[in-house]
Amino acid sequence: HKIRKDNQRLERENDRVKNRLNELGTRITHDNILLYKLWEECKKTCPYTGKPISVSQLFSGEVQIEHIHPWSRSLNDSFGNKTLCFADENRKKGDKTPFEFYGSDEQNWASIKERALRLFYDTKEYPNAYHKFKQFVKQKFDDDFSSRQLNDTRYISKEAKNYLSKICTKVIVSPGQATSNLRHKWGLNSLLND
What we know:
- By secondary structure, the chain is mainly alpha-helical.
- The chain has eleven helices and two strands.
- The protein has a two-stranded antiparallel ribbon with strand order 1-2.
- The longest helix has 23 residues, at 2-24.
């Protein structure tokens, strides 16, 4: 019941954002919906620099979707690990967590933490934003997420292979990244997102 309610809430939210994108004359794509939702969540402000983000900057390439804990290290591509960042700042931050990049300057880090709390704490439309704040200010990188995901994927792959082996003579399990790359190259991502 809770899952159904959450899905209905997300559907209503996506419809609202799609209508807003139509009003702005912006193409409705998965990335543009995500950009707009993250923009609202961070109260139209870059959490790293504190600079306001205008709607025209949002879709110009000046602003990027940024993984709070780098995707290459965490494998966490969830909404809860994403925020917005000006492209220049994102390039400087590189493959580091916010604390790893900004933490050596105590005064700057204190102002970034305070800003992140203000931006992510009181967000009625995005009730899990406080969890994002906690991820944002975490001082020790924790790869627990990627470990859990890899173990879950291994287990599911093994069980799926065992089941399918009863039907097919030869079943091969490929790594998730290979599957993701094929989905992208074959153009299946656009079909699967709908």
